[in-house]
Amino acid sequence: MILQKRQHLTSIFKKNGVDLDLLPLSVKLPMSCFQLILTAEKIEEKHKAKISLFVKPQADAGGYELIVDYKLVVGTWSKLVQKDKWDVEETLLNMEHDSCFIDTLELCANIRETLASQDIKTANSFRSFNVLCSGRSFYLNTAHLNSLGGRMFKEWYERECQGEQNAVIQSIDPDELEELLRTCCAYGPTPVIHRKNFRKVLEIADKEKITGLLRMVESFIIDFECIHPIQKLEFAAEYRMSRLADTVLRSFPVQLDRLDLFLNWSLNSYCLRMYAEFLLRAIFLMGGDCACDIQCCPERVGGVRKLMAVLGSGGHTTEMLKMLAVQDDLFPERTYVIAQSDKLSGSKVEEFEREHGNRFSVKTIPRAREVGQNYLSSVGSTLTAFFHSFLLVNKERADVVISNGPAIGLGICFFARFFDLTRIHRCRVVFIESICRVQKLSLTGCIVYHFRIAHAFLVQWKDLQKKYPKTEYVGRLV
């Protein structure tokens, strides 16, 4: 921090300049436990002024180190001093000056302070190398850190071997550096990795290429039983941990156990839980502050809400059913919409609902365009599909409509939104872009996005959310 204090002393001098009173200028440093106190007093027999500058720690400043670079200007005289002072009250400067010529007193001090009791020090430290990062100071044993690997630690060690005492680091975030150093050497020569810091340490160690620390985190993940085996495999794939991957795979007795474990993890993963929470928070509460909304959608018997899910052929149906598997308690009454020519999706729905026991019905509507159909001839079939979509939405009166990209869902989403805007029936439209869409939206997704048809537009890739900022990133749902 930069502290500047300018004080004109002409008001406290008499014309002859020999009647100088004691004037303490006490300055409390911002966000500090110190005071810089500047005093001026007369010396009768010498007709001079005695200028003193000293630092005074507060009562709760125990353990603080104050490092000061300051410049004191008295009249036309100036002096630059660099000193390191600790947690006791000490005088930084004592000087005498002819008081007749003092008209300006200026103090410029550059203050940097660190909490000495929490400085990062290794237990076997024989020398302390000082590292500065955005105003924070760390005292390190570079030989210990160099043994962990990494270009940054190696550079510090080489600089200390050449006789240097400190280094200024700007290539890393200070919070990350503090977390890294605290893990590596705050509690002794062996890094301390636990459940609260292993993720952050893993990210930093991978970014800085600290191979020794990466191996230690890998060993921690292998032994940590609270991490699901499939999540361990995800860590192994992301950070290229071959020993972790091999250990986890060997723990599976047979292939069937691996598949069952993966499915259990997929259906209970963080992304799916977040998706269910998002529906509860966003779908039913968005725009629900109008009295007319409540009147247009009276509570169903028993408080049951009805879901309409649009299923496309192939992967669209598989994705949708996996997402709905975590919402049995949210939507016990469901209507599935499929194309008339899609027989496979209907059988998948029946098999799915036999396991979950919800009340459901399967409705069919014509396709807007069959595969390979001429675009000109598809105009009539599109109008027909929209007409059937209107009839179906009006008949079912679902509370929530969910679609994940098939073309037949466009008409369903459009009329559900239309009924909601016109207050005919309150309905929330959620569009979930398929996981295969990584760089750009599907054609149906583009129409829904740009015409604001959906109340909530969810994507499963961060790059897609950055490109389309009005979407909501929820991670991988399948």
Model description:
With 478 residues, this protein is α/β, with parallel strands linked by helices. The chain has three domains: 2-116, Sandwich (Apoptosis, Tumor Necrosis Factor Receptor Associated Protein 2, Chain A); 119-226, 2-Layer Sandwich (Potassium Channel Kv1.1, Chain A), CATH 3.30.710.10; 270-369 and 380-473, 3-Layer(aba) Sandwich (Rossmann fold), CATH 3.40.50.2000. 37% of the residues lie in helices and 25% in strands. The protein is built from 16 helices and 18 strands. It has helices at 142-146, 151-161, 174-185, 198-208, 211-223, 229-239, 242-250, 255-267, 270-283, 291-296, 315-324, 343-356, 378-396, 409-421, 443-450, 462-467, and strands at residues 2-8, 23-28, 34-43, 48-57, 64-74, 77-85, 90-98, 104-115, 129-133, 136-140, 166-168, 306-310, 333-339, 359-365, 400-403, 428-432, 456-459, 472-473. The strands form four sheets. It has a seven-stranded parallel β-sheet with strand order 14-13-12-15-16-17-18, sandwiched between helices. Strands 1-8-5-6 form a four-stranded antiparallel β-sheet, with no helix packed on it. Strands 2-3-4-7 form a four-stranded antiparallel β-sheet, with no helix packed on it. A hairpin with a 2-residue loop joins β5 and β6. α4 (198-208) runs antiparallel to α5 (211-223) and α6 (229-239) runs antiparallel to α7 (242-250). The chain is elongated, with a radius of gyration of 35 Å. The protein starts with a strand and ends in a 5-residue tail after the last strand. Belongs to the ALG14 family. InterPro entries: Oligosacch_biosynth_Alg14, SKP1/BTB/POZ_sf. One of its GO terms (cellular component) is UDP-N-acetylglucosamine transferase complex. It comes from Globodera rostochiensis (Golden nematode worm).
